Amino acid sequence: MADTDWTAEQNDLAVTAYFEMLGLELSGHVFRKAPVIRRVMAATGRSKGSVEFKFENISAVLHEAGYVFVDGYKPAKNYQRALAQRVSLYLQAHPGPLQAVAPAPVVASEPKYVAAPIAPRPRRSRALRDAIARHLDFAAIDAANRALGKAGERLVANAERRRLAAAGREDLAARVIHVAEQMGDGLGYDVGSFRSDGTLLRIEVKTTNGPRSAPFYISTAELEESERDPESYELHRVFSMSRRPQVFVLTSPLVSHVRLEAVSYRCIVGTEVADMVP
Fold this sequence. Notes:
The chain has two domains: about 1-100, no CATH class; about 100-278, no CATH class.
């Protein structure tokens, strides 16, 4: 069957297996890909290489739409348009695979700091992104992952203490505060730290179990906070939290590093609405 296109039924089997792996990964569970591959091979009659390439195609569908994909399956383009349709249909029938995300265990290991992405990659298909977006609710994912977020904040706070201590500033290390835990979320950032010269450093932390490509949400208040005194602000993006936590740092203005997309609107109901209609 190597020279024939995958049928809709075969694509559905691969898509279902793929989202099974992605759900486990985002939940912080360790799993083996080999049994999943063998199951799809047996059900479709396809070779191991063909199945893995199909998984890479599914990663490309999600990546080009701007969403997280299974770590280890690098996006492979030139997929069938029918595959994108099957992904969208699966999400219509199963709207929860990326939303019911259990918190990851607290990770004690020190994170590895890596370079920030150079620039967002262009997206091939807005129509595809919008079709998938109708069935994903990353705000719900973030809400389900509050414990994961707190673990990421603690990870960064401890890393800041070690950084300052290594620079000979034990005095400053002792003053690092996990603001979100000790003072609440009202200040607009999560960790209060310092640069080695003693100036204040405000750190917002965004954490995911997913890979580096996973998008994240930022509120209007958080965005405004990033623009207030930009020299003292950093956003630390923690990814692969439950496996091998890594961090990249974005400085203000954030729009120089990321593309912002409106995903919701506030609706104001009242008599003044009539005055706004031309």
